[in-house]
Amino acid sequence: MDLVPALKEPLHQPLKSVLGPATAKVMAEHLGLHTVGDLLHHYPRRYEERGQLTHLAELPMDEHVTVVAQVADARLHTFASSKAPRGKGQRLEVTITDGSGRIQLVFFGNGVHKPHKELLPGTRAMFAGKVSVFNRRLQLAHPAYELLHGEVEEPVETWAGALIPLYPATAKMESWKIGKAIQTVLPSAQEAIDPLPDSLREGRGLVSLPEALLKIHRPRTQADIADARARLKWDEAFVLQVALARRRHADAQLPAVPRKPSPDGLLTSFDDRLPFTLTDGQQKVSKEIFDDLATDHPMHRLLQGEVGSGKTMVALRAMLAVVDAGGQAAMLAPTEVLAQQHHRSIVEMMGELAEGGMLGGAETATKVVLLTGSMGMAGRRQALLDLVTGEAGIVIGTHALIEDKVQFHDLGLVVVDEQHRFGVEQRDALRGKGKQPPHLLVMTATPIPRTVAMTVFGDLETSVLDQLPAGRSPIATHVVPAADKPHFLARAWERVREEVENGHQAYVVCPRIGDDADEQGDPKKAAKKKSPEDEAEKRPPLAVLDVADHLAKGPLQGLSVEVLHGRMHPDDKDAVMRRFAAGDTDVLVATTVIEVGVNVPNATAMVIMDADRFGVSQLHQLRGRVGRGSAPGLCLLVTEMPEASPARQRLTAVASTTDGFELSRIDLEQRREGDVLGQAQSGARSSLRVLAVIEDEEVIAEARAEATAVVATDPELTNFPGLRTALDALLDEEREQYLEKG
Question: What's residue 172's pLDDT?
Fold first, then answer.
């Protein structure tokens, strides 16, 4: 496919040869930077104008910060300690100010001599360190610092007005050291090969790539920064969209068997039996899917829907349409619990239509089989036989479906549930089971803002189910601050009792199982931390087995409490779920194995312990397990985090809305530097540096249109060698795989 030679990029030079081995090693290990190009693309996080200062008053706790400030006063204290019993211990306390606030710097022991000489009142410097709290005041202990005095080669005027770039840094490599390294390699920026086609760049009035790199690292004005960022955003958006457009283009060339449901077949019989009408959303999305299935190249569609919006129903109708047209459909679930549950609910929904070849089965019926890794030999052999003969039109299973032994008579559609748990290899292995590539429907209950869908799942067309089926109940969510207000936690358990007394059931979710010493984390690491957040962090996360034991003997004594977690034998898991679904168990204490797909309408309350240890979308997913019946749901988020902490703010956000799309925006904004392409981090470079997926919606949408047009006229990019080079750099192995994971 890649016949065009990529241009040789001078930016591929290893940093070792330019900066020396010691600096290069720290940059590789701590910042993931290996080449001159990597370093040039390590953009400043923000800029300080030397005349104006960071707000010390707004420093975030526990983060590595760089501030520019002036020394207000410096005092050397002596004290007695175990190491210096005769009062010879020394502590230097320096107060710095920036007009907005003050913060104390502390140096101890032999480390006091140099700062004592250099940090005199009135001196200005850049300080870098981790913000902590001591005696209820913010402080930086042993910060690194760089004095700011007009250096000889710089006249004071230019110095005072210049913008100081502050780089994403680590304790091992301060911002100013990164800045100096970048100044060393900056001349190479002139040779950077421009990936944007000239027509696009000129048409949008964007500066060239060498100019953008120069302006982002050595801006003279705020306008320089704006020019550079506008240009670099386009690079990121466009190169990524070209990668996705090429993938869509390649997929569109694949042949597929069109699958049109027969007018009075299985789908019609199924629709006739439905005791309710489909929502408008379900009908609209079903039409999009049926239109795709009728074409002669494979459907690649992402079906997004809130927890409980009826995605399974839409997927089942698509599967029935394919069976009608003579094909088979396979549904992949991430866990055995979920596969068994999908199997149960699909067989229930289909009734006699799932009894193909059996007495009492309807004449249009087919067989619905389950295939998981823990099945007995006899059941497995029968399931495999039903698949290869075509007796079974629908199969539901886990990764076991992908094994070599599994063969289909004519696989026409693959439905993947909760895509983020499936890798590209698995998706491709299953695709390879069809005589021609089967159609693909990927379902996710994690709401994804439109731009993220265009960025992360750009090779899939997207359908969204955004209305809940009739009969769904509202869920009230509250944060329970266990450390500040212990009586709130006691009240939470009373609420659980009240729900059970009213004939309902409850979940209690914990981050850990608790039967394993190595889950505890490293006690040595924990011991070093000191802030109140760290006090809460130091304790190992609450564990299912401990919590269940404590509840059964204490606050929930007399209720039937059971546990469910991933290390249980599949049969035991299934038995526990069956008892809970049947209403025999009052309270289920579980790990996140219940996050996806577990459907018990009678469960109305959920208490999430150490809720701060879960991500926003995970909390939203978990919460979606209650309020599935006609009674209102209640979700309590228990945390020991202090009120001002980011973790608490995240929980407050989750409690404030049940709109998954709104939450996914909050989640992205909170992760700030977070890499939207998730594991692309493992490629050692964050893939999105200046592109903010939420704010730059227009850039992404326009880049997608431009990229689609370029690929349509020149799929091999023969006329765009610079773009080829950028694409090769973007799609190092991990990234390419991640894109394919969709």
Answer: 78
Structural contact between residues 131 and 143, judged by C-beta atoms closer than 8 angstroms: no
Q: Which whole-number Å values give the CA distances from 241 to 275, 340, 454, 704, 731, in the listed order? A: 44, 38, 8, 5, 12
Nearest one of 472, 465, 469, 491 to 480, comparing CA atoms? 491
Burial 335-347 (b: 16+ CB within 10 A, else e): bbbbbbbbbbbbb
- pLDDT higher at 408 or 674: 408
What is the per-residue pLDDT across 236-252, written as a single tens digit (0 to 9) for each?
Answer: 889 888 988 888 888 88
Q: Where are the beta strands (DSSP E) in 14-88?
A: 46-49, 64-79
Distance (Å) of CA 501 to CA 485, 498, 585: 25, 5, 13
| pLDDT value at 536 more than 90 | no
User: Within 10 A of 301 (CB to CB), how many other CB atoms are there?
Assistant: 21
Q: Strand, coil or helix: what is 640?
A: coil
Cα dihedral 499, 501, 504, 505 sign? positive
Hey, CA dihedral for 606, 608, 612, 618, is it positive or negative?
Answer: negative
Closest CA to 102 of 137, 126, 149, 74: 137
SS (HEC) of 132-160: EEECCEEEEECCEEEECCCCCCCCHHHHH
523 closest CA partner among 533, 542, 537, 543: 537
Q: How far apart are CA 666 and CA 646, in angstroms?
A: 12
Model confidence pLDDT, tens digit, residues 167-177: 877 777 878 78
